[in-house]
From TrEMBL:
InterPro entries: ECF_S_folate_fam, ECF_trnsprt_substrate-spec. The lineage of its organism: Bacteria, Bacillati, Bacillota, Bacilli, Lactobacillales. The keyword Nucleotide-binding does not apply. This is Integral membrane protein. It holds the Pfam family ECF_trnsprt.
Amino acid sequence: MVQTTRTLALISVLTALQVIVGSLLSIQFLTTKIVFTFVILALSAQLVGMWPTAISAGLANLLGSLLFPKYAFFPGFILTAFLVGLTYGYFLQTRVTWGRIIAANLVAMLGFNLILNTLWLHLLYHIRIPMLLATRLPQEIIMFVVSTVMLVGLFRLPVTAKIIENERKRW
């Protein structure tokens, strides 16, 4: 994808949306956080590709942590956000199918969100990993199902296909 001013503006808007959804429209407790930024990441993957989506996700996490701090800052969460963005970008940048959505969600939610974020929480708060997994595993399984259904529904909407098609023509 050619990096134009229009593309940079689009990435900036998507990053700002991630900050808003991830920081202001999220439900957060000490060891769990329920967010719907996966919708923006999936759209970003389709609109701007893998690497811009990953960088945008990491930057949005950093900005959200700095602008709307809720708990202690830890750079590991930025790495997780970057890897989740990279995962959605990898699986969803060319085409969207059930299989690709499921694969992206498996790697992102059950891989990075569950395993890496559990490790970060353990390092940050010294809570035993089995105790963290006991609360985080059910949350990630539920979010896996919710995100899969939401993304399949989103990409089946004619308006979504039209937006992506129009944006790709402008590249």
